[in-house]
Specification:
Oligomer: single chain
Helix content: 40-55%
Radius of gyration: 20 Å
Shape: globular
Largest sheet: none
Strand content: under 5%
Structural class: mainly alpha
Distance between the termini: 72 Å
Number of helices: 7
Length: 196
């Protein structure tokens, strides 16, 4: 079960990345539900400026995925582990992966909710959340970067990790929002020539 859990946590980062990049940011044939809900509604409502946080009460409903997305994504996510369990003749692998995928999805929904609707919750005071919030803020600035919300392992491995903005912009502010502006480099003083 532990092997299934640990493997599924890593797998979930890549699953989230794949889903986010290829289904939520572009229509796939006639299937455009995820694209419309995410890229056209969520990203138009929440940008990287002050609108990163809920402005209008009615926009709260655009933060989470539809209720039925969770069970569907978890079941689709554990399919490879179901096959592995069946081949290995042990159900511990799929049980561990089920716990990991459900926990990952729960963490995604909760953190994503907190990012767009901050309320000074305990999680919002943690350093990990602080970094992940900056990571997600940059995704709202650069939609083709930082696809992970929970564990940016896939962003790191697949070349979509962005740690700071490429250009200065008016970004969202708050106690749990890091400064993601470009670093300002101090000019170096020229080295003095030595006289021989």
């Amino acid at each position: 079960m532990a092997i299934g859990f640990m493997a599924a946590v890593v797998y979930a980062s890549f699953f989230e990345w794949l889903l986010h990049r290829y289904f939520m940011h572009r229509p796939i044939g006639k299937f455009d539900y995820a694209f419309r809900a995410h890229a056209l509604v969520h990203h138009q409502t929440f940008k990287a400026d002050h609108t990163y946080h809920v402005i209008n009460e009615k926009d709260k409903k655009t933060i989470p995925m539809a209720w039925w997305n969770g069970p569907v994504l978890i079941l689709v996510g554990i399919l490879p582990f179901f096959v592995a369990s069946w081949l290995a003749s042990t159900w511990g692998i799929v049980c561990g992966s089920l716990v990991a995928c459900a926990s990952y999805y729960g963490a995604y929904e909760y953190m994503h909710w907190c990012m767009h609707l901050p309320k000074k919750r305990n999680i919002e005071r943690s350093g990990i959340y602080f970094r992940l919030n900056g990571h997600h803020l940059l995704h709202h600035r650069y939609m083709h970067k930082n696809f992970n919300v929970v564990l940016p392992l896939a962003d790191l491995c697949l070349g979509t990790l962005l740690l700071r903005s490429k250009a200065t912009f008016k970004q969202a502010e708050g106690p749990s929002v890091p400064n993601v502006q470009p670093r300002i480099r101090k000019p170096r003083l020229p080295k003095f020539a030595t006289i021989k």
